[in-house]
């Protein structure tokens, strides 16, 4: 099946480029973990796709940094072409991770709260929006920065109830936050180190912290007292493993659920910067800079 690709994001491939990801392709390999493509031709045995359809990779590591490719039908998932292009290009990893973490670890009810760090990341922005669609309240932790008010305003425009810095999270005044909202039963950790320890301190008794990243490159440290006296649970999440444990039809169902949220205006693409493929080096450099909340997208 011939496909023409465009708008694959660059950021989700950084760990793979460094050789630090859980799944590494055999070399030589084409980079790129996400993207959306348009089918331009199909073979005689293809029944589920036709020219003009939009498709995304069914699994990680397909190699999306290219203008054309030939794939089997099973390697692709059709997505509706009536959603924004950037939403389609960034659909297959971060929003899926956000949705599954919100749904699979705690039986949250409307009005319950969730706390997360790295809230301006692609997953973090998706968590904010999906949580708002589910009537969940979010406490969103970010690193302090010169334009903190600008970032706060953006996250609140997505549905964030509270946006606080790592420093504010450590202050005793944090307990005042829970005078008018329940303590979170779910914490989502993408940082590790001290940040994850502080998330644990805010959890309600019996709550769960799910770790899906380690931006600080530091271990998660949980105090013995929190584990014993608050009976907290530490879990991990990796979308690639979730896919292995579930059928392709279940992943397709997840994608369509997210597409419905996009159509309803409840889920938008993360802040993106589009960069022509030939300027990939500029995109890579931008993705490595601190305090960058924009996802670098290669266009073709």
UniProtKB/TrEMBL annotation:
Boundaries of every Enoyl reductase (ER) domain copy: 2-298
Keyword check for Mitochondrion: yes
GO cellular component, one term: mitochondrion
A UniProt-annotated Pfam family: ADH_zinc_N
Gene Ontology terms for molecular function: enoyl-[acyl-carrier-protein] reductase (NADPH) activity
Example GO BP: fatty acid biosynthetic process
Signal peptide positions (record): none
Annotated compartments: Mitochondrion
Keyword tags: Fatty acid biosynthesis, Fatty acid metabolism, Lipid biosynthesis, Lipid metabolism, Mitochondrion, NADP, Oxidoreductase, Transit peptide
Matching InterPro entries: ADH-like_C, ADH-like_N, ER, GroES-like_sf, Mito_Enoyl-ACP_Reductase, NAD(P)-bd_dom_sf
EC number(s) from the headed UniProt entry: 1.3.1.104
Similarity comment text for this entry: Belongs to the zinc-containing alcohol dehydrogenase family. Quinone oxidoreductase subfamily.
Official protein name in the record: Enoyl-[acyl-carrier-protein] reductase, mitochondrial
Organism listed in the record: Sapajus apella (Brown-capped capuchin)
Upper lineage: Eukaryota, Metazoa, Chordata, Craniata, Vertebrata
Gene behind this protein: MECR
């Amino acid at each position: 099946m011939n496909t023409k690709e465009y708008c694959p994001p660059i950021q989700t491939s950084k760990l793979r480029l460094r050789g630090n990801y859980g799944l590494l392709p055999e070399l030589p390999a084409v980079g790129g973990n996400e993207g959306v493509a348009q089918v331009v031709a199909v073979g005689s045995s293809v029944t589920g796709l036709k020219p003009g359809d939009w498709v995304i990779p069914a699994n990680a590591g397909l190699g999306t940094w290219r203008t054309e490719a030939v794939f089997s039908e099973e390697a692709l998932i059709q997505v509706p072409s009536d959603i924004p292009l950037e939403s389609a290009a960034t659909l297959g990893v971060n929003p899926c991770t956000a949705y599954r973490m919100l749904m699979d670890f705690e039986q949250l009810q409307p009005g319950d709260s969730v706390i997360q760090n790295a809230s301006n990341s692609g997953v973090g922005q998706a968590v904010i929006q999906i949580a708002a669609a589910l009537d969940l309240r979010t406490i969103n932790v970010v690193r302090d920065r010169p334009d903190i008010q600008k970032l706060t305003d953006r996250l609140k425009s997505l549905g964030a109830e509270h946006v606080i810095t790592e420093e504010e999270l450590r202050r005793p005044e944090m307990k005042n936050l829970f005078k008018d909202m329940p303590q979170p039963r779910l914490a989502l950790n993408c940082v590790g180190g001290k940040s994850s320890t502080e998330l644990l301190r805010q959890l309600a008794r019996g709550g769960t912290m799910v770790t899906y990243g380690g931006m600080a490159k530091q271990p998660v440290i949980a105090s013995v007292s929190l584990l014993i006296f608050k009976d907290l649970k530490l879990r991990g999440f990796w979308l690639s493993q979730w896919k292995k444990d579930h059928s392709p039809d279940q992943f397709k169902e997840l994608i369509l659920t997210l597409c419905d949220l996009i159509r309803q205006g409840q889920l938008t693409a993360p802040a993106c910067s589009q960069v022509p493929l030939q300027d990939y080096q500029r995109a890579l450099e931008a993705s490595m800079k601190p305090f960058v909340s924009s996802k670098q997208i290669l266009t073709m």
